[in-house]
């Protein structure tokens, strides 16, 4: 995940969450990320024991799916203000954030 979605994750957290809940949602997202990091560290030796080097194909597949998600689902934020992004997302999602 460090190659594809991780840098995007840290950047977009600060840009896409609405201002009035940004702190809470960023803290929640980071906590979830560390829980999943812990699960990977816990389960990786078990997966290696059962599947051997094929375990790495799972991680490769997750990276490919992450790349597809980033390329197709996330909005371009370059050159946009935080307020402009919030208005864009409200319009795209069809509801107020």
From TrEMBL:
PROSITE patterns: MFS. Keywords: Membrane, Transmembrane, Transmembrane helix, Transport. The keyword Disulfide bond does not apply. InterPro entries: MFS_dom, MFS_sugar_transport-like, MFS_trans_sf, Myo-inositol_Transporter. Residues 1-78 form the Major facilitator superfamily (MFS) profile domain. It comes from the Bacteria. This is Major myo-inositol transporter IolT. It comes from Duganella phyllosphaerae. The lineage of its organism: Bacteria, Pseudomonadati, Pseudomonadota, Betaproteobacteria, Burkholderiales. The gene is iolT_1.
